[in-house]
Design goal:
By secondary structure, this protein is mainly alpha-helical. Among the domains are: about 200 residues; about 100 residues, no CATH class. Helices cover about 65% and strands about 0% of the residues. The protein has 24 helices and two strands. It has a two-stranded parallel ribbon. Helix 1 packs across helix 4. It is elongated, with a radius of gyration of 67 Å. The N and C termini lie far apart (about 165 Å). Keywords: Coiled coil.
Amino acid sequence: MQAQQCRSSSESPNASPFPASGVAVKMQCGGAAERPWRLSRDFDPNPRSPIWRSSAPEPLVWAESSAASMLYGSQDAPNIWHQEALSEAADSLVAGELAQIYQLVKAKNERISEKEEQLHHSECLVAETVGAAKAHLREEVEELLRSSHRELRKEASVQRRRLEDLFQKAQEEFRKAVEWRREARTLKGTVSNEIETREKLQKKVQELLRREKALKQQHELERKRWAEEKEQLQKQALLQQEAQLRPFLETMGDQLMPHSRAPLREPDFLQTHPDVSLRRSQGPSNSSEIPARTRMTLQLDEPVNSEDPQFDPDELLYHAVDMWSSHGSTSTARWARPHREVGPSPLSLVSAWWSVDTVMALGPRGLWGCATLLVAEPVKNQELQSWFLRRWVWHALQADAQSIWQLAAESVKVRKSAPPLPLDLPGLKPEALDLLSWLPDPHRRVGLLPKLRRQLQPLIAAPDEVVPNDADLLWLRPASAQLAVAQALWKDVRQQLLSSERALRQGLAESSAMAEVARTLLSVAALSLAVSPGDGEAALRALARLCAGHADDLASQLPDAMPVLLWLADVTGATGRCPPAEGGTAELASKLLEQLGSASIEHDPPTTVYFLAAALLRSPFEAVASRPSSSLLAVLAQLLCQSVEAATTQLEKPTLREADALERRNLRALRGPLRRWRDQLHEGAKNSQVTVWVSNCIEVLDELSLY
């Protein structure tokens, strides 16, 4: 019951759990609550307790009080009343206690509710603070994560790059290590091989030293014997040569001339002696004659019987022509005698002797006819004929070009009072060799000379068959003969380039072979300008490609190419004297002159000075300011200045020759023309490189003394 009341009071704290009677009991028993019986140790509020029974063995202490007397009355009163009074007192006591408990519980509940409210408020504050802190922390953590991610990415990229670089370096080092290992192995093998070869060579050297001692003794004994045998063999060889020529001369009807008869030396022997004659004179020979031992005349009036003589005409061709060409040509190469089958060929023999005879009479110009005759003959030894063709054509071309520039240089050697050179100078026209006049007596019908004429007939065609582009550029007439020679040279030089292509790419080509190819290409270009301009441009382009990687080597091997290079630059319009040729011929000619012209300065400085001065003074004043020709004129002026310095250095040496004094005077005579040409330049060209180089040349020539 008390539990129910407590529960009800906890559920509704404002309503009282006790009835109104309870309150009255409380009020009535208010004083009784403070009575002494409450302090008794034997008090038991439970009514069922034994203390409430009347049969208690001992009397209660509180029974003597007034309250006890009130409850229980006197001992004489009946027990029922005592029970009712006791129950009422207990009820009042319980009601008072319950009221106090209620008040205490109510106060406690109020405190608990206040604490709960405070706790709830504090929990809310804590929750808000925690949420704000969590949000702030989350933002800071996210920002830190993002920054750390960025830094990690940067660091990772940097590390990746470093790793890639290190990996590449490691790969390169590994490759180098592999290559070094291979090289070390090869070097080790080569060293071991060299050691073995060295030991073998030492053994061989020791053996050779022993043999040398023995051979020296034998050599001294056999040396005298060899000298005696050599003299005997030379005598036998002379006897055999005379025995071979004797049947042929008897068949031809020729007779030996007496030694007292003087040989023909004038160039006009063709008019007085229309027949072919071979002259051999005793004694020393000059640069234009062939050294020989005997002197004879070969008449060709009657036909030759080709059955009796047993000799090799190609051998005689080689001996006869090579004696003159090796004596007068600038080439130093000598070919070995080819092995030919012996057989009669009087036409080749007559061609050989006729070539030698005309070259001795006409000089180097006769080589044009020899080259044409060699092209017209059937091919027997391609290598030998090509070599002679290249050699003859280059020597004839170089000699004719040199004579052209000598005539041009004579026109600029003027005095101070002479008028300046005219602006409209004629072109450098070569004096072409007429092939019709090269063979004498065109009316002769009997003999071998008509056979030579018939052999050359395909090349001596009608004038309308081959029409040259410019007749002033012909070196040989008719144009068909020049075209045949140019085509033969072009075919030969292409074969040379194809055969030496691998050596040129590997850098193993000989300088002499490259120089031979360069001379042939220049010859093809000079001959093809008038009859086949396309071949001429192709030849110049091939030479420019050859000079691209071997300019220094070629320049040192071509010291005599300056006249030909200057002529090509003049006739193609590279110097501005005439309109430039079609295509890139002018540019190629100027480029080749710039690359190959410097070698002629050391070869013959005074002659180079005259040629360069003539080429520079022939160019018009307007060409100095124009772009295509200004660069070449600057090169010409620079080469002229260098050649003048070289010539003055050569002439400053202490000599007493009369030619040196004449050379000094001729060089000083160039000051006037050069000064007038420089002064007549336009205002815009006075500060150019050409003017500077020409001024330097004039200063150097002013310092040159006459003696």
